[in-house]
Amino acid sequence: MIRSKRAVGAVVALSAALALTACSSSGGKDAADSSSAAAAPAAGAAAGPKKTIAMITHAAPGDTFWDRIRKGADAAAAKNNYEVQYSSDPDATKQAQLIQAAIDKKVDGIAVTDPNTPALGDVIKKAIAAGIPVSMFNAGGPDALGLGAIGYFGQGEKDAGIAVGAKAKADGATNIICVNQTQGQQQLVDRCDGVTEGAAGAKVKMIYVNGTDDSAVTTTIQATLTQDKTVDYVVTLGAPIALDAVKAVKAASSSAKIGTFDTNEQLVAAIKDKSVQFAVDQQPYMQGYLSIDSIWWYTTNGNTLGGGQNVATGPAFIDQTNIAAVEKFAANGTR
Fold this sequence. Notes:
The chain has 335 residues and is α/β, with parallel strands linked by helices. The strands form 2 sheets. Strands 2-1-3-4-5-11 form a 6-stranded parallel sheet, sandwiched between helices. A 6-stranded mixed sheet has the order 7-6-8-9-10-12, with helices on both faces. The protein is 47% helix and 16% strand. Helix 9 links the parallel strand 8 (233-236) and strand 9. The chain has 12 helices and 12 strands.
């Protein structure tokens, strides 16, 4: 795992904060409602009217990765007496419209992903200028704090890609295809760029597939493997795409190995039966949880996490060495 000393320090501080919040299933009321310093906010004392938080992502329909995000968000919302209004669109222009709609509703907070800062940056800054606390997660890490977000929760995508490339090369990869399921999302390009850097000396080619159509994904990967029999590793950028790649490898009678970013319950099973070699875990449940909980800490006590740096939730690898420990949590939909 690639992580700076400051990021590690942020995670230590974060663990202390979560230890406090774990004491109860509810959160605290606004600091503005307290009449004295003795009435400081404390996790475990939710009161007052329910507040509305908009969670807005770039999720594509049917991508089970986001189920983990939403479970984490819902857990934090239940603790903090929040209602999370979730919406998503993989089209950055339409995602920007969703953010504007949340501003117009005068929500109490926004948790948002940013896969395309040129398209989303201005409206995110507009939300902040309107006095709405904005947390960011999963995508947009390099730009988040500069836009004015109270915190960012996710992995360094290029760093994760470098780790993947190095792992694939150590596993014997000489000719890798990196399968990008959505054009126009910078974090996916960063992942493939990282793979190229981490696998220095091996051939790496990025190919695009239509991530909203599993049959088309399988067909495109299969065609690539059929045309170039020297491809010996397929790196995918999401768990559903990895499962499509398993079908493609079999259909092409290829011996290529598969590694992927992100997990779901079916992907865990694929690692167990060795049809997928490994997955990068960025802990999406934690991303969803922290993006909501950070708004509670900020609005009740002015707290922020990370010490002016992004809070790293990954990368870490799931493979044969630790799959048994992860499996039970994946079955719960939290890993």
